[in-house]
Design a protein that fits this description.
The complex is a heterotrimer. Chain A is α/β, with parallel strands linked by helices. Helices cover about 35% and strands about 25% of the residues of chain A. In chain A, the strands form two sheets. An eight-stranded mixed beta sheet of chain A has the order 6-7-8-3-9-10-12-11, sandwiched between helices. A four-stranded antiparallel beta sheet of chain A has the order 2-1-4-5, with helices on one face. In chain A, a hairpin with a 5-residue loop joins strand 11 (about 305-310) and strand 12. Classes of the chains: A alpha/beta, B alpha/beta, C mainly alpha. Chain C: Keywords: Cell membrane, Membrane, Transmembrane, Transmembrane helix, Transport.
Chain lengths: ~325, ~350, ~325
């Protein structure tokens, strides 16, 4: 296994109290595999990724429990200096907002080349040649001419390609993409997602795709982990989850999105709001919004029940997953 | 179609680009909206979709008179409202209200919910006498699904979805006939989006409202709209009923847009044909000659460089009865089904039937 | 219902990790959308509403810096109105035979070069400083924020004109301007000094006010009011002013301290206040010559000045922290 996250807990200390952002997350991703982490704002999907990357702001954030095994080694036990060597070289991250992730006063060529100068000790000239090569690779037209331009001279889609180029620079084994196409228009989103999927295949990388978009997930993911209030509520191979969700939250999400190919009647709406992380409901965090909820849900935190074992294990954190799956 | 309550004719909005500080010299113009026509019938929802920078939000602002058109007309019940005196404008404004995109910046953080929803009555005191206002505000809160007792709270005490409901209540206060909604759900979480879309749907029936619904999310637009207009670089390139646009698009841009939308169905992955456009949208300060989509179009020929295609029923479909017979601004309009047919429904007029016949 | 996370100036979810992409820790309230009055914990919905101002006050009351500086300022204001409360003597009552004498019973701070009681003079000196500080700030803030606010709201030619004017004023060196302008005025009161400070100070405030108004003007709620048909005055008074005020208040509070020290500087240079007006600046000036043999003459008025300026600047800092939670 390339990356395994085990029982991760993250807290944030805020003025109002302790926000429990991540409450025991387990997931794994293998080389060449795409794991989609799906969730709404506040679900803890980005915080988990930041913990894996080691870019969590500490304080106010704090990892209180858990292991992050990268190629069998627990990253949380590494010294900061060793951790830094892993970051960038072995795992890289792509952010939603490419404009604010790029330095506005440095040319894109300098920023791409910097990776090679810092990590590989290349000369300025060699690193620039490498930058052009990378820009070609992410299909930025006229890379040679544009290598000296600044981030604001590129369109949103092109900037996101530069971010991808930067992430790929040192040929990492794992890429974490946090809402990489949310800020982009659909036609550009399609270009960027295609590029990302293709490069992943080519380089046999593991990809963790963090998103709230069920459409994007269906297009590229192999397996999916649905998060709610800092926990994974359902884990499954992508084909099965869309056919028959085994958690009422997943089911609600799937039914609540309008479809391009259908003109439905009233949309199904999950009632209520996502919980306040300062005060997560006892028992199953989803119980106040759940149509299947009963007394047990208000007291017992549901474990991850095994739904099927076949080839990829499938789990659901619902006491009544059978009802959800078949009803 | 019922009588048009709003007619938009040849609407333009150009922002001048100037140089110099003291002596300003116009060196060009950003043609944000560059010739838009549409009608809105009473009780209908017209969806306007397009990517960022296509001018859809500018159209919305002109409809509610937040921006003055450079040229063109916006006629509400026959009267051009884009050139009214301030007093006449104030009266018209009662009938056309707006719901904004960002629920975080559209509510004044220093006012209570009661003051925010009650403000329309202070500006238009004739709508509600002073004593009745508090009750009216509470009724509105109730209508949009919020607790009427929240009247003394401040916006920051609410979540995004609740704030959007407050914005909707403010829009409803003057009992308008038309609501212009600019991306009203795009800032919300998926599970909350459905709540707000349903609310808008229900309010339309309850108060017989007409909507202009502007969004970039094609799925939501289809769900809520009766008719849909697709905008590209300041113009509507195709307009028709939702079935015409989604199931029988004839403009290559619409087809590319629809094919690029990720479908939440992994089974569709294998047999979906996707049109991936190359390049980026040109700058509205420098619009290509002829057809403005030609720089990204796979069908572009010389004629597209020279001749601006008009938004009309393409000649090839004019005599047919197919659903492809709707306005489309393309010289080489041709039907192509890009959204897989509804599971269950049998594609009665599939892509092959009409697709081949149309090529000139 | 659960404790609501507040206040976030614009109600946005707080972003715990500034750098590196949006984290998704939205702090939405846990209330249900259903119309049940109150939530699981049964607090009624009509719990005292908290505006941003009351939130700021709530924060300030817990800030020790605010309490300390506030107490100092209240004390200063009281003694500047009623100096007799703590000083029984007359500051102009001097006895040359006691010149430069040190501390003695009844005269804890000793005597100055003219044999006046330093303690009494230091107490009475507060009045000039507080007067100059308060009125200069008031004048600067009113003039600056009205001119700057209108420029920000209307934009266009008026804005361009005003910006050029402020540029011109920024180019005038304050001390040099004071030496030139104030030396031609012979009026022996605090008003010429205050007038001079307003004249040179308003551009700073107008810039802040203009920027603040422009930022607020772009918010959708101003657009929403316009779409409702609200008049310009309504938009300005109801929507823009309350939201644009915070930065102006912050800058004005901090500027207050600097006006007090500017008054002392000008008086020191002999162009500010002039005897028989009692002012720390004048006393510092006259004591400077004797700093070797009678340092106490310099120590007390300059100490009082330093504490006063510091108190106002600390107050400004505390107010800024309270009004702008994003800076925390």
């Amino acid at each position: 296994m390339l990356l395994e996250v085990r029982d991760l807990h993250v807290e944030f200390h805020t003025r109002e109290g302790i926000a429990k952002a991540v409450n025991g997350v387990d997931y794994s991703v293998d080389a060449g595999e795409t794991l989609a982490v799906l969730g709404e704002s506040g679900s803890g999907k980005s915080v988990t990724a930041q913990a894996v990357m080691g870019i969590l702001d500490v304080p106010p954030g704090k990892i209180t429990q858990g292991e992050i095994l990268f190629q069998g080694q627990d990253l949380l036990k590494l010294k900061e200096e060793d951790r830094r060597k892993v970051r960038g070289a072995k795992m890289a991250m792509i952010f939603q907002d490419a404009l604010s992730s790029l330095n506005p006063v440095l040319s894109v060529g300098d920023q791409l080349g910097e990776m090679f100068q810092v990590h590989k000790g290349m000369s300025r000239k060699d690193s620039k040649a490498k930058a052009v090569e990378l820009m070609d690779r992410v299909r930025i037209p006229a890379a040679k001419e544009r290598v000296g331009q600044y981030p604001h001279q590129f369109s949103g889609g092109m900037r996101q390609r530069i971010m991808i180029a930067m992430a790929l620079a040192l040929e990492p084994e794992l890429i974490i993409a946090d809402e990489p196409t949310t800020a982009l228009d659909v036609t550009v989103q399609a270009q960027v997602m295609d590029l990302l999927a293709e490069l992943q295949r080519e380089l046999h990388m593991g990809l963790i795709l963090i998103t709230h978009d069920l459409g994007v997930v269906a297009d590229v993911a192999d397996k999916i982990a649905v998060m709610y209030a800092g926990r994974i509520v359902e884990r499954a191979p992508v084909h099965e989850i869309y056919k028959a969700p085994a958690h009422p939250y997943t089911k609600g999400l799937l039914e609540s999105i309008p479809r391009l190919d259908q003109k439905g009647q009233e949309l199904y709406a999950i009632k209520g709001l996502p919980p306040n992380l300062l005060n997560i409901p006892p028992g199953c965090a989803f119980n106040p919004r759940c149509p299947l909820a009963r007394d047990r849900c208000r007291t017992d935190v549901p474990p991850l029940y095994e739904v099927t074992e076949s080839p990829v294990p499938r789990t659901s954190a619902c006491h009544f997953w059978k009802e959800c799956l078949h009803g | 179609m019922a009588e048009a309550i709003l007619e938009v004719r040849d609407l333009h909005k150009h922002y001048p680009l100037t140089q110099g500080i003291v002596f300003k010299k116009q060196v060009g113009a950003v043609r944000a909206v560059d010739g838009v026509d549409f009608d809105l019938a009473a009780g209908e929802t017209l969806g306007i979709v397009g990517e960022s920078g296509c001018g859809k939000s500018t159209v919305a602002k002109m409809l509610v008179n937040l921006e003055r058109p450079t040229s063109g007309a916006i006629r509400y019940k026959g009267e051009d409202i884009s050139r009214l005196s301030p007093r006449a404008l104030k009266a018209v404004r009662r009938n056309i209200q707006m719901v904004f995109q960002d629920p975080y910046t559209s509510l004044n953080p220093r006012m209570t919910v009661g003051d925010i929803i009650g403000e329309p009555y202070e500006i238009h005191p004739e709508v509600a006498p002073k004593g009745s206002r508090r009750q009216k505000v509470q009724d509105l809160l109730d209508v949009v699904g919020l607790n009427p007792e929240y009247i003394n709270r401040y916006p920051h005490q609410f979540s995004g979805g609740q704030r959007q409901r407050i914005g909707i209540a403010r829009g409803l206060a003057l009992q308008p006939e038309i609501i212009v909604a600019d991306e009203p759900v795009s800032a919300l979480d998926v599970s909350v989006q459905a709540q707000v879309v349903n609310l808008l749907d229900n309010l339309q029936t309850e108060f017989s409202l007409s909507y202009v619904f502007i969004a970039h999310d094609l799925s939501i637009v289809r769900h809520i709209s009766d008719r849909v207009g697709v905008m590209y670089l300041g113009r509507i390139v195709e307009i028709g009923t939702d079935a015409q646009i989604y199931d029988h698009p004839t403009h290559p841009y619409t087809q590319a847009l629809l094919s690029a939308v990720p479908v939440p169905d992994p089974e569709a992955r294998a047999h979906r044909e996707r049109i991936i456009l190359t390049g980026d949208v040109p700058s509205p300060a420098n619009i290509p000659s002829g057809c403005r989509f030609r720089t990204r179009c796979w069908k572009a020929q010389e004629r597209c460089t020279l001749e601006v295609p008009l938004l009309a029923v393409p000649a090839v479909f004019r005599l047919t009865d197919s659903p492809a017979k709707h306005d489309s601004a393309c010289h080489f309009a041709e039907e192509k089904q890009v959204v897989p047919p509804e599971p269950g429904a049998d594609g009665s007029d599939g892509p092959d039937g009409a697709g081949g016949s149309g090529i000139p | 219902m659960p404790e609501q996370p507040q206040p976030f100036d614009d109600g946005r979810a707080i972003n715990h990790t500034g750098a590196g992409g949006g984290t998704d820790l939205a702090m939405d309230e846990g209330e249900s959308l259903e119309k049940t009055p109150g939530g699981p914990e049964g607090t009624g919905p009509d719990r005292k509403p908290r505006s941003l101002w009351s939130d700021a006050w709530h924060d300030l009351r817990r800030n020790p810096i605010f309490i300390i500086s506030g107490l100092i300022i209240v004390f200063l204001v009281i003694i500047s109105i009623w100096p007799q409360l703590i000083a029984s003597g007359n500051p102009l009552d001097c006895d040359l035979s006691k010149a430069q004498e040190g501390s003695q019973p009844g005269h804890p701070f000793g005597f100055n070069g003219q044999g006046c009681d330093v303690y009494t003079r230091t107490v009475y000196g507060a009045r000039a400083s507080v007067q100059v500080g308060l009125f200069a700030t008031l004048g600067v803030t009113l003039l600056g924020s009205v001119l700057g606010g209108l420029a920000g709201f209307y934009g266009g030619a008026w804005d361009g004109f005003l910006s050029r004017i402020t540029d011109v004023f920024f180019a005038i060196p304050v001390i040099l301007g004071g030496l030139v302008l104030l030396s031609v005025v012979s009026n022996n009161s605090v008003w010429p000094v205050i007038g001079f400070m307003v004249l040179l100070g308003w551009p700073q405030l107008s810039r802040i006010a203009r920027g603040s108004v422009i930022t607020v003007k772009q918010n959708d709620y101003v657009q929403a009011a316009r779409a409702l048909g609200a008049s310009n005055s309504r938009m300005m008074l109801r929507h823009i002013t309350p939201n644009a005020l915070a930065p102006v208040i912050v800058v004005a509070t901090i500027a207050l301290g600097t006006y007090i020290s500017l008054e002392a500087t000008l008086s020191f240079l002999g162009v500010g206040l002039k005897p028989p007006t009692v002012s720390w600046g004048i006393d510092i000036s006259s004591a400077a010559a004797y700093v070797r043999n009678a340092p106490h003459m310099l120590l007390w008025p300059s100490g009082a000045l330093a504490i006063t300026v510091l108190a106002f600047i600390m107050l400004g800092d505390a107010v800024r922290d309270a009004l702008d939670p994003k800076l925390r």
